[in-house]
Design brief:
Pfam families: Response_reg (PF00072). It comes from Desulfatirhabdium butyrativorans. Keywords: Phosphoprotein, Two-component regulatory system. InterPro entries: Bact_response_regulator (IPR050595), CheY-like_superfamily (IPR011006), Sig_transdc_resp-reg_receiver (IPR001789). This is Response regulator. The structure is a single chain. By secondary structure, the chain is of the alpha/beta class. The chain has one domain: Response regulator (Rossmann fold, 3-Layer(aba) Sandwich). The protein is about 55% helix and about 15% strand. The protein has a 5-stranded parallel β-sheet, with helices on both faces. The longest helix has about 35 residues. The radius of gyration is 16 Å and the shape is globular.
Length: about 140
């Protein structure tokens, strides 16, 4: 099973090239050219990771991260930036970003981070499933 990723960036050339490179590595990638489009997509689909550009018009990466986390607190977000600052990185991590990667992104490094995001998502799903089972057993008195 391939990792399922949502790649969000307002630079369409970058988006197309990265999507092609990810597909070549057998990563199931969906693209969005804006944070608003990404927010719409996560309501319809589940992704192992959202790779989100930090600098975008309309809604920047920090605002988009907050909106994504409010819709799904367990979503795994990796921020991409060509303008990384320690302050932005710390702010992003405090808001729940899994990681921050500088552009141009090394696809090997990014693929490893996607695998980690997938593993973390699976652990969270397993934990929630166990909690549901415990709740059902407790309620039913088995």
């Amino acid at each position: 099973m391939s990792d399922k990723v949502l790649l969000v960036d307002d630079e369409t050339d970058f988006l197309e090239v990265m999507a092609e490179r990810m597909k070549a590595r057998e990563i199931d990638v969906t693209t969005a050219a804006s944070a608003k489009e990404a927010l719409s997509l996560i309501e319809k689909e589940s992704y192992d990771a959202v790779i989100l550009d930090l600098q975008m018009p309309e809604m920047n990466g920090i605002e988009a991260l907050k909106a994504l986390k409010s819709k799904n607190p367990d979503i795994q977000v990796i921020l991409l930036t060509g303008h990384a600052t320690v302050q932005k990185g710390v702010e992003a991590m405090k808001l729940g970003a899994m990681d921050l990667v500088e552009k141009p992104a090394d696809l090997k490094v990014l693929a490893e981070k996607i695998k980690k995001a997938h593993a973390k998502k699976m652990v969270l799903i397993e934990k929630k499933t166990e909690e549901k089972i415990r709740s059902i057993i407790t309620q039913k008195g088995w």
